[in-house]
Amino acid sequence: MDAYEDASQWRYLDRIVDKIADGWHVWQIEDPDLIEETNWIDGPGRKWLRELFQKAALASCYQTSSVYPRRQVLVSLFSHDPNTLKPEQAAKYVTKPLTILMENRFTDGEIFLNEVLKVLAPDEINEQRRLAPDSILYDSGGGIGELPKLVADYAVRADADGIPRRAVVLTDGDGELPGEVKANAQLVQQACQKEGIPCWTLSKRTIENYIPDEVLDAWMPYSDSGKGKRVAAIKRLNPEQRDHYPMKKGLKLQKAVPDVRAFYSGTSGADMDELSKGLGSDVIEKFREFSSVLSAESLRGRDGNGELDKLIEMIADLL
């Protein structure tokens, strides 16, 4: 209540509720009567705010529990609780989008993550993305090597504003074998740990390894005949091999290290000939082009570990 009664703080509170009106956030009102009596709501020229307040109060009465817990921001002038922000800090915090840092925002974000969210995320998240698309920002540099720099830069800017970090990092593990995380991905993890930013490292080799059979099958009638044989060979791999097969460039087994050659032992020579060719650099685009056949069942089946749901939970926690 302290901020409501201090007119010098109203401009910050107004910025916050402006973003609520835009669909970025939800105003959780526990005592509407108490707030309704404040000068902030009831003063001259505050009709617009009263109307927004009434809508928010009504929504709070009928608010359903979220599938995922959402982060709450408490605002107070005098509290020293680390989870409570002063009005000026809160205004900066809630008016900045949730930032998702990644290697390539066009493929990792606007194709892969968009489709994953569309299929697996709860309705409330997809509704926010529809009504307030600018409330989530995909940001990237020049590949995985630039991600640690992006993480450090984001942290510096957040510190300059005096606000908590509100970012998530998504990166490939690039592992050729189960459990392997390549050096560049480890550097990303270390940068995130240093700055206290959540990081999700995909357990499969790349985002292309999450493309389910349904998408590949839908693509085949529109592709050249040679790719049909390659897709058939990919589908004959066991789940772990499929998780780490280089979908874009293919696998030249004779050039691979001994552990990788052993990993694909038992695969026929004819299949390895097909697998050496790969599906091309644009294969991830089929994830969007044929998204009409995507289902939660097929996506979770190709995932196999529930990690895409956990990634969504990480994102939802900061929304």
Description of the molecule:
There is one protein chain. This protein has 319 residues and is α/β, with parallel strands linked by helices. The chain folds into three domains: 7-94, no CATH class; 98-208 and 301-318, Rossmann fold; 210-295, no CATH class. It is built from 17 helices and six strands. It has helices spanning 10-21, 32-36, 39-42, 47-61, 87-94, 105-120, 123-131, 147-161, 183-195, 213-219, 225-236, 239-244, 258-263, 269-275, 285-289, 296-303, 307-318, and strands spanning 74-75, 84-85, 98-102, 136-140, 167-172, 199-202. The strands form two sheets. Strands 4-3-5-6 form a four-stranded parallel sheet, sandwiched between helices. The protein has a two-stranded parallel ribbon with strand order 1-2. Strand 5 (167-172), helix 9 and strand 6 form a beta-alpha-beta unit. The model has no long low-confidence stretch (mean pLDDT 90).
